[in-house]
Design a protein that fits this description.
Helices cover 59% and strands 4% of the residues. By secondary structure, it is mainly alpha-helical. The strands form two sheets. Strands 3-5-4 form a three-stranded antiparallel beta sheet. Helix 4 packs antiparallel against helix 5 and helix 7 runs antiparallel to helix 8.
């Protein structure tokens, strides 16, 4: 099938509405558009460079944790949560009551990502794995009553307040099982020669078009991209997440998906997707470079602390994964009493490594602002 000849599907009359039945995608794909070749080459190169950094950066898993946290926050924000990075890095006890629901959704996303990546070691990428991931994502949060971990058995819709005024109505529930089976076969079909980045571009479009769950489809569909890249060896670590790019270009993202369904323009979607991979991978490389520069700078500053330097290094290593601390958590982490822990934090404040952010005299929270800024500035 040539991408330029693709017919996206048909609208089927149901009782009082029309649902969209997409075309199956498990087939060979080719294209005539030379722009696709150039973008595919650039995206593959950018992805390989990002992957190389995950192999050479020391203690990279600490920084991958922050990548995951940012992805969880950004992907959840696309779906309507209102948290910022400063909120989601905190422990639950430190979160304001009015932000706890959104905070919980983001933490569930982190769990879902980590669980899915672990499961890939024993399970192939599959609908079963996505169902398990969805169950973790929806556990105990808004949407928990919408059959977590199970493919829908009723009709859903996107936009509007009902089927009558919906912006898009996905396929009828009776069609979903066959569509998902076709999608899963496409992931593992060794009889066709389709580049992985094109496969996952088509897969993300198809997943969002099927909309197989009653809630959480956007988040699972974006996570699918990373899972596919890891499962097929394009990434050694889960270091590429497109949500920041998709949030920045949200209207273009939704328009590109809709344009396939309405105008059969699959090429436009593939070009949009490949450009997103290029820009996100390049941004990820820049982030790793900034982290290494910051780390070298901090090492030089910490040396000036003399006998406190060893504990300072241990604390900073912890901060790379969770960039905030309190006196009590520092005491527990380093097995220190109150006064030495307080003096160590004060020394790091003097060095500009930590900043007190509450303004309180008690229960103060100290943020690793320079490190957080690296991820805030990541596009």
């Amino acid at each position: 099938m040539k991408i330029e000849d693709f017919k996206s599907g048909v609208y089927q009359q149901q009782f009082q509405y029309k649902s969209f039945l997409p075309e199956l995608i498990n087939q060979e794909w080719t294209w005539d558009d030379p722009r696709m070749n150039v973008l595919l080459e650039k995206a593959t190169k950018a992805l390989a460079e990002l992957n190389a950094y995950t192999l050479i950066v020391p203690d990279v898993d600490l920084f991958i944790h922050m990548h995951i946290l940012k992805e969880a926050n950004t992907s959840s924000r696309i779906e309507g949560t209102q948290t910022e990075m400063d909120d989601v890095i905190l422990d639950e006890t430190e979160v304001l009551p009015e932000k706890k629901d959104d905070w919980s959704e983001v933490q569930n996303y982190v769990k879902a990502i980590n669980t899915a990546i672990e499961e890939l070691e024993t399970l192939p990428l599959s609908i079963r794995l996505l169902n398990q991931t969805h169950a973790v994502l929806m556990d105990g949060v808004r949407g928990e009553h919408k059959t977590p971990g199970k493919v829908r058995k009723s009709q859903n819709w996107i936009g509007g307040t009902s089927l009558a005024d919906a912006a898009y109505i996905p396929p009828h529930q009776d069609e979903v099982a066959e569509l998902l089976s076709d999608l899963e076969k496409f992931w593992h079909n060794d009889m066709i020669d389709v580049p992985h980045l094109i496969r996952i571009a088509l897969s993300h479009y198809q997943f969002e078009t099927i909309h197989p769950f009653l809630d959480g489809n956007g988040r699972v569909g974006r996570l699918l991209i990373t899972l596919y890249l890891v499962s097929n060896g394009l990434l050694t670590k889960p270091s590429l997440y497109l949500s920041a790019h998709l949030e920045k270009h949200r209207s273009s993202y939704y328009d590109a998906l809709s344009r396939v369904r309405e105008s059969h323009d699959l090429g436009h979607w593939c070009r949009f997707f490949l450009q997103a991979v290029i820009e996100t991978a390049e941004s990820g490389v820049s982030t790793f470079q900034n982290i290494m520069e910051l780390r070298n700078d901090l090492d030089q500053r910490i040396v000036t602390l003399g006998r406190r330097a060893q504990n300072a290094r241990k604390l900073v290593m912890y901060l790379y994964q969770r960039p905030f601390t309190t006196v009590n958590s520092t005491m527990e982490l380093l097995d220190l009493k109150y006064v030495p822990a307080s003096k160590l934090i004060a020394a790091l404040v003097d060095l500009g490594i930590l900043n007190e952010v509450t303004g309180y005299k008690r229960n103060r929270i100290y943020m690793f602002e320079q490190y957080l800024a690296v991820f805030r500035n990541e596009s």
